[in-house]
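Reposting from the mailing list since nobody answered there.

I have sequence plus structure tokens for a pair of proteins and want to know whether others read the tokens the same way I do. The first protein:
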Amino acid sequence: MARRGLVYICNPNNPTGTIVSLDEFEKFMSHIPLTATVLIDEAYFHFVEDSSYGTVIPWIGRFPNLIVARTFSKVYGMAGMRLGYAISSEQNIRTMRSCKLWSSTNVAVLDAAIASLGDQAHVLDQRNKNIQTRRWLYSELDRDHRQYIPSHANS
């Protein structure tokens, strides 16, 4: 009997901002049966500076059970508009399409997404502002001898 299931990993995690490195993720995937779907939420991937981290999108061909979800909510500044997308194998996308809500967005949201994709300078600026603010916060926490978990997300 085939083992089935769904594994959800938010990487970077929300709300902790912790990450799973590519090496850790590869070890994990080597133990997951192909009958189990692995959904990786990369909503905060723009904000990671750690060199051990990386997107797993290039691994989709290697792991046909892998789905990567992203959103325009974070670095693109469209939090209230709730627009995201998934990247996976053709078979997974075809299966997911049967569950799609066709009335889940509107033309204003789609126009905003297209505009944000055309303004990569803004995306880079938002990323840099977030990273600078995070570094400032850590320096203030260090100065006050406060303990904290370093975040790789937008907080």
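The second protein, same order (residues first, tokens after):
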Amino acid sequence: MCTPSEAVFVQYDIQHGQASASGTTESSCYQCLLGAGCLDSPSERQEGLECGDLPAGSLGSAAESASLCVSALQCIVQTGCDDDTPEGEAYCYCGTEGGSTESDCEGKSSPFPLNGVCATQETAGFTYTSNSALVTNFLDTMQPSGMANEIFDCSIGNGCSTGAAGTFCP
């Protein structure tokens, strides 16, 4: 039984021929993320890395927080917006309105939110109400979207993302 976070990546693997009812291949996105320590693995004592690990907070119950996190994960995976741009994974929020670097995006005072393809999902999973605060705290794992972004940051840092739209994982 997959956790909600794992289900996003297993579904991606199924769609890209890296998983079936019998399991995932060694080169699957899920296996890469698991091996890189980006997802929970009780056997490796890796915990607190997934959407379901979020506590209740100002955005609602633990289940509501997990749902907001999964929504951000799904958007990033489905759109491939985490491609190799100067803004890194923040491009999913910043889009073309954010400028050419993450600091340009952070410095924008309006519009809020910016025009990234996942800006709606990103904003919904943060309590921050300005571009500067949101981008500064983009990897805040106490926030639903921050947890989702941390999973992608981990994937990029560990070679699970090729950095090209549509080729999130090997």
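Reply #1 (J.P.):
I read it the same way you do. The beta strands are 19-20, 23-24.
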